[in-house]
Structures are given as C-alpha cells and as structure tokens.
C-alpha cells in the first residue's frame, strides 16, 4: 500500500480517514452551522476552491498523487463512500438546523452540517474537478461529451450543497384585503420581506360525504357497475 501507482485500497483508506476525522471533530465541537456559508461566503469559497484545484492541475505532472486524483480508482472510491453517507441521510430523519437534537453525535440527523459528510463531499468534488480539468485541457473533440457531462454534475452538486445555506422556510399569515410583508422563520423570528402579498378572496367549497358498500376481497363498489350511495 502507498506504492505508486495508487489503487482502490489507498482511495478507501483516504475516505475512511476523512470519515473518522469528521466523526472525531463532530464529537469534539459538534456540527458546523450551514448558515455560515450563506451568500456571499459560499460563492467566495467555491471560487477559491476551484482556483486551487486549477493550480493543482498544472502541477499534476510533477506529483503522482495529483495524477491519481483524476483516476477512476479515486473516482469510484470517493463516490461510493459519499453515496453510502447519502444513503444514511435518506434513511435517517433529517432535522432542521435550528434543532440542537440533531447536533448530537454522530450527527447523522443533520447530515449537511456533519463534518464527516462535509469532508467526503469536498474530497469527491476535488476528484471530480481534477478529472474535469484533465479532460478540459486535453483539447480533443471526443472529450467534449465527457467534459459537459461531468462539468454539469460538478456545478449541480456544488450549487445544491452550497446554495442550501441560503434556503429559508418562512410562514406568513394573510387576511383578506390586507397586504402582508412580514413572515416568521423556523426559529420564530419575524422577518420583513422585500415584497408584499395581498389576499383578495378566499373560499372553501364543501361537499357532503357519501357512503357506499365495498367488497373487502376485491375492493369493488357494490353493486358492481352501478354502486348504491347512502346519504
């Protein structure tokens, strides 16, 4: 292990090390607040990160480790490790960021604020970015579909995670004929919106319920073809 060229073992060891480091940091200081990456911090972080990847790309010929970052061994190990945590995120009920219960170790109830997920996500984006830069500067027409496909994935994933820091869920109570521009967030804070909403009309249509006979075995309404309704 750790003899060039690196393979799957080194890739999964790196992912495992990032995962354990994230869990240790989660236990020591708790999860980080995703709100700290709100605009313009998220945009600045993305620009600096990709500029750093671009700089590393130009040194890839001097360092074998940088060349390995654009290999399929690094890609498969990073994406499978991140996919495993994403599966855990889908199975574990996710709590809003303001609820401190989700911050308890290991912090899987707030996966986007989990250090282990953040480390593996950054590692995967780094591998994906180095792969895109490698094909982008190869100047071959056959690589254009590959570049567009992976570049779109890179932009979508980066934008989705970093952009989630700007998402706010607000609740607004409106009355007929009264403009409303104040809303309440999840923490109960009252916020002033840059727009106003006015309710002109509100109505509810009610229909009387109907009862009918249903065959428990087949689920058909009785009598079949022309069921009888009971008021």
From TrEMBL:
The keyword Repeat does not apply. InterPro entries: Cyt_c_bgen_Ccs1/CcsB/ResB. The keyword Ubl conjugation does not apply. Signal peptide: none annotated. The chain crosses the membrane at residues 12-32, 38-59, 71-92, 112-134, 146-165. Keywords: Membrane, Transmembrane, Transmembrane helix. It comes from the Bacteria. PANTHER family: CYTOCHROME C BIOGENESIS PROTEIN CCS1, CHLOROPLASTIC (PTHR31566), RESB-LIKE DOMAIN-CONTAINING PROTEIN (PTHR31566:SF5). This is ResB-like domain-containing protein. It comes from Bacteroides graminisolvens DSM 19988 = JCM 15093.
């Amino acid at each position: 292990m750790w003899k060039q060229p690196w393979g799957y073992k080194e890739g999964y060891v790196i992912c495992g090390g990032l995962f354990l480091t994230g869990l240790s940091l989660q236990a020591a200081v708790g999860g980080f607040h995703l709100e700290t990456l709100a605009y313009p911090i998220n945009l600045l972080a993305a620009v600096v990160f990709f500029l750093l990847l671009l700089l590393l790309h130009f040194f890839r010929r001097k360092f074998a480790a940088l060349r390995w970052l654009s290999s399929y061994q690094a890609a498969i190990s990073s994406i499978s490790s991140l996919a495993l945590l994403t599966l855990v995120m889908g199975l574990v009920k996710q709590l809003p960021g303001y609820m401190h219960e989700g911050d308890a170790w290991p912090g899987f109830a707030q996966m986007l604020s989990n250090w282990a997920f953040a480390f593996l996500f950054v590692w995967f984006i780094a591998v994906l970015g180095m792969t895109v830069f490698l094909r982008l500067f190869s100047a071959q027409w056959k690589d254009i579909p590959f570049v567009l496909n992976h570049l779109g994935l890179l932009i979508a994933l980066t934008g989705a995670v970093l952009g989630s820091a700007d998402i706010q869920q607000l609740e607004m109570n409106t009355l007929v004929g009264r403009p409303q521009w104040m809303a309440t967030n999840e923490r109960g804070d009252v916020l002033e919106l840059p727009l106003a909403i006015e309710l002109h009309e509100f109505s509810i249509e009610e229909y009387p319920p109907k009862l009918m006979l249903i065959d428990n075995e087949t689920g058909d309404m009785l009598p079949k073809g022309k069921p009888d309704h009971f008021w």
